[in-house]
Amino acid sequence: MRSGRRLWSASVSDSRLPSYQLLIFDWDGTLVDSIGRIVESMHRAAESCGLPQLSDEAVKGIIGLGLPEAIRMLYPELDEAALVERFRIGYGKHYMALESEPSALFPGVEESLQAFREQGYQLAVATGKSRRGLHRILEGRGWLEYFDVTRCADETASKPHPRMLHEILAHCAVAPERALMVGDSIFDLQMARNAGVDSVAVGFGAQPLESLLGHGPRLAINEFPELRAWLEGRAPVRTVEVGEYVG
């Protein structure tokens, strides 16, 4: 159902907030406005490998996976490791060129993360990026020590396998029910569900809220500061049935 301006939405009717201790964030499309660059780089890599260019929507649909898994999902005909590696190298080359000026944080991200730190939350990142890629970005921002722990797809299981979250929970000594996963893809929400962790669906990243609401998010947001307002008890919560969309 569509009705006017986008509003707060949640997938549960009970508005009482659990006592979260750990906030876990996806990177691309959740904290950083980088989806357009990822899509363009995938297109250019396909072109350099002589592969057909798929739609932007198809590429956005695999964002969140580790890069090898994403390539194989988009181009299952690439059944040789050497061809996948050629595509991976091409993608990295194009993406690095675009990232000569780093992708911007979404509005309100920096202020909200700082507030979360001051409020005593542990902060983590669970991303489909490589360790090398995330390290480069965090180093460039002076954030190498900002998060309590980070996990990347090339050092653990790719989303939606829960291992990434299991490792983060163990590192932070936090029970699953005290953690919250924030992400913009179905893989983020599926991973959270597989790990027994609550999730927040982000509607300004790779995938539309319509495709996320069926995966059991505790909350759906259209702007990052809405998460802070909800955690601080300053925002109304509305029940959203599966298949319904407030927009």
Features of the shown structure:
alpha/beta, DNA polymerase, domain 1, 2 domains, 247 residues, single chain, disordered N terminus, six-stranded parallel sheet, 6 strands, disordered C terminus, globular, Rossmann fold, 10 helices
Describe the protein in words.
With 247 residues, this protein is α/β, with parallel strands linked by helices. The protein has 2 domains: 22-33 and 105-231, HAD superfamily/HAD-like (Rossmann fold), CATH 3.40.50; 35-98, DNA polymerase, domain 1 (Orthogonal Bundle), CATH 1.10.150. Helix content is 39%, strand content 11%. The chain has helices at 35-48, 56-60, 67-74, 81-98, 109-118, 131-141, 163-172, 186-195, 209-212, 225-231, and strands at 22-25, 122-127, 149-152, 179-183, 198-202, 219-221. Strands 3-2-1-4-5-6 form a 6-stranded parallel β-sheet, sandwiched between helices. Strand 4 (179-183), helix 8 (186-195) and strand 5 (198-202) form a beta-alpha-beta unit.
Structural class, by secondary structure, is: alpha/beta
Give the number of DSSP strands.
6
Mean pLDDT: 88
Low-confidence stretches: 1-15, 238-247
Order of helices and strands: EHHHHHEHEHEHEHEH
Strand content: 5-15%
Shape: globular
The gist of it:
The protein has 247 residues and is of the alpha/beta class.
